[in-house]
Structure formats: structure tokens, C-alpha cells
């Protein structure tokens, strides 16, 4: 993409590794690697799998280099990948997030919208939890834990199904979110849509 994103934020680590590992096999061409690294540097990674994939690229290596590495004790800390100190006891102002669930794909179609208040800096998962507490018969949902964090597999009793190639896609302003519900932090007044989709 024009801003340096390759796929989405989760694929960036492997994409940068692949470009680095295969650069000598391609004819010279214009590639602004700095843009891609800028995307990685500006993202606050929290998921262990994402960190494991992006870290080799940040140190100029790939998984292919692992066999030739000589491990020694090191005190190097990558501060850009360290989570921020806990905010326990710190009051964060509430924000309002608008949340819709939409199914125009299977069975009885539906569209429901609600607004919830969560502390500023809360993840999208917190928004879903608040909506489910407010109206459990409408906004109930289920998640499964993955290496990439929690993945929403069912909303309003409608479950994603790999056989049908269906899933719940989260959008903001009509654009797919580049992060999962466990890491994406909505802004005040943002409208998040969960749309039952197919791939």
C-alpha cells in the first residue's frame, strides 16, 4: 500500500523478513523499505506472535538466519516493543464508542446499534463486553484465544464457519481494522461495525 503497509499489521513482520531474505534474487527496483519500517516502528505491538515475527526484521535478520546465530548473553532491550507501565489506579476519562452488528449474509438478517462508554485507551474487546452487559440478548458474543490474541467467532448467536468461509469483520469508517479486538483501541465518537462477511 502507498503508506508502507504490506497486507496488514500482522503480516508486516513476515513480509519484511521475506523482502530482506530474498532481496538478492530480484532485479533492482524502487522499494521504499523505510516506509514499511516506519509502519512497524509506529505500531505498539502487544501480541507475542506479532513481536516474534517483527523482531527479526528490526535487527536485520530473518528466520532463515536462526541456524547460523551464536547466542550469547545480552542485555539489549528493545524499548519500542516493551509494554507501557501499568495504569492501575490512574483515572482515564470515559469515551463513547458506537457499535453495530450487521448480518446481511445468512439466515434472518439483522442490524443493531448501541453506544457504550469505556475508559479512554480501552480495547475494542472492552467495548464488546460493555455492549453485551448492556443488552445481552442482542450483543452476546464468543471469542477463541489464538496466538494473535482473542478472535471473535460468534455474535448474536451467529457463528463464523470455515466451511462456509464466513467470519466477523470489524470496520471503522468503512475500512477493515488492522488489529484484533484485543489490541485495537477505539477513539471517542468512533463507530465500529462488526459485519458478518465471507472470504
Automatic annotation (TrEMBL):
Family note: Belongs to the eukaryotic cobalamin transport proteins family.
InterPro entries registered for this protein in UniProt: Cbl-bd_prot, Cobalamin_Transport, Transcobalamin-like_C
Organism listed in the record: Anhinga rufa
Location(s) in or outside the cell: Secreted
Record-given protein name: IF factor
Top-level taxonomy: Eukaryota, Metazoa, Chordata, Craniata, Vertebrata
UniProtKB keywords: Cobalt, Cobalt transport, Ion transport, Secreted, Signal, Transport
Keyword Signal: yes
Protein residues bound to cyanocob(III)alamin: 8, 53, 177, 199
Domain of life: Eukaryota
